[in-house]
Design brief:
With 261 residues, the chain is α/β, with parallel strands linked by helices. It is built from 9 helices and 8 strands.
Length: 261
């Protein structure tokens, strides 16, 4: 992965230089545009590994899936999700935002005490700009969240999810130094931008299989004002149960091999 990263970075330097020294040759311009498009793909596509490794599925020889829930903690939404999970003896990982952890520290501890996992989802969730931030701001966003979670739980997170899954060339070196593993997903229903419970569940259902990482969000509401996670999570759990799967939290060793299947 590092080789691909270095090649892409080098291409971003060489292509514009070639364009200039060839007196703005049309062919060189086309190459430069292509390089920039590839860079944009690596940055904006959550499962792309050109900047570095990203977990899209986990290794298992058992009928297991992993539920991940972003954007909390959010008051009753988080507790409602935990109650629903425990009804089915399921476990999940919550990717928390530091600012919200600071506002609701008790829920963060409760998640751990009830047997679920907590991951790093940045300090303030700059969803529209995270991919464009420089190394200093990125370190602040990532390190600040890890420090907040460790302060509240006594345990530093080992998993990180980028806002909207987008990240740039500076993110992976920071994660490596902090001992964090980047996690994406393989099954999502776009519940972060829509509230049609049936469509959300249907889309997720098409992608659920052993080793799948399911992405859900908390803090959203339906058009009628109800908690969206309280509506979508039961549907997802029903699908998992109907396929004789079990919702678990994988070990770090299960995240080491990340070839897509």
């Amino acid at each position: 992965m590092r080789t691909t990263r270095y090649l892409l970075l080098a291409a971003n330097v060489i292509a514009p230089v070639c364009w200039v020294i060839t007196d703005f040759c049309l062919l060189a311009a086309g190459v430069m545009v292509l390089v920039h498009m590839l860079t944009l793909w690596a940055t904006l596509w959550p499962s792309c590994r050109w900047w570095g490794d990203v977990v899209c599925q986990f290794e298992t020889d058992k009928p297991e899936v992993w539920i991940t829930i972003d954007d909390g903690p959010d008051g009753g939404h988080t507790r409602a999700a935990m109650d629903l999970l425990e009804e089915k003896e399921a476990r999940a990982t919550f990717f928390f935002i530091a600012e919200r952890c600071h506002s609701e520290p008790g829920i963060v501890r409760e998640v751990i005490n009830r047997g679920h996992g907590v991951g790093n989802h940045t300090c303030c969730h700059p969803a529209y700009t995270f991919w464009s931030l420089g190394p200093r701001r990125l370190r602040e966003e990532i390190r600040g969240c890890s420090m907040q979670i460790e302060q509240l739980t006594g345990v530093a997170p080992v998993l990180f999810r980028a806002p909207a899954g987008m990240r740039n060339c500076f993110v992976h070196p920071i994660l490596r130094r902090m001992g964090l593993k980047l996690v994406a997903w393989s099954a999502r229903g776009f519940d972060g931008s829509r509230d049609d419970v049936k469509r959300i569940a249907s889309r997720i259902a098409r992608r659920i299989k052993p080793g799948a990482i399911i992405l859900l969000h908390e803090g959203r509401r339906t058009g009628g004002g109800a908690s969206l996670i309280a509506k979508t999570l039961p549907k997802v759990l029903e699908i998992i149960e109907s396929r004789e799967l079990k919702a678990v939290i994988p070990t770090i060793s299960q995240l080491r091999r990340n070839t897509r299947r």
